[in-house]
Amino acid sequence: AIPTVSRSIFDAIKCRAFDDDDLGKSVSYLLVNMEIKCNSSVDVYARILVLFWVLFVLWIVMIPLSFLVLLVYIHPSVQSRSITSLADSCRFLWQDYNPSMIYWDVIDTLRKIFLTGLIMLIDKQRGSNKMLRLIIA
Fold it and tell me: What whole-number percentage of the chain has pLDDT above 90?
């Protein structure tokens, strides 16, 4: 669920550039609402960016970080096989892995977030393209 929600958060600021023949520059519009220009000086887009960064910190940064903190805290319990009630409650984070690989779920979650969202932030207008994204992925 984390990568799916993360992708939705990134989609909220996804823009598409169009060439403006009059000025020789390109103009970007928000994909979810093509009436909104992707320019931080536009009030609506600026509010969307603020919301994006709040959700980015809360969901994309804090959730994996909280998983990591929980796993660090319960690691001795899982390693010694004397499962505490907290370790049992967090079983979904570690039950599929060998006790020595208990942190793998956090690494895998970060990988999925990167592949579904962060790679979208590679700037297409300044030389990167789908092939570059594919190589990075």
Answer: 9
Nearest to 13 by CA among 1, 27, 31, 28: 31
Pairing state of beta strands 15-20 and 25-30? antiparallel
Per-residue CA distances from 43 to 40, 87, 129 (Å)? 7, 46, 29
Closest CA to 94 of 120, 117, 73, 63: 73
**Other beta carbons less than 10 A from residue 103's beta carbon:** 16
In the prediction, which pLDDT does 59 show? 87
Q: Could you write out the DSSP letters of every residue in 94-131?
A: HTTS-GGGTTHHHHHHHHHHHHHTGGGGS-TTTT--HH
Residues 6 or more apart whose CB falls under 8 angstroms from that of 119 comprise 133, 136, 137
Closest C-alpha among 17, 15, 10 to residue 56: 10
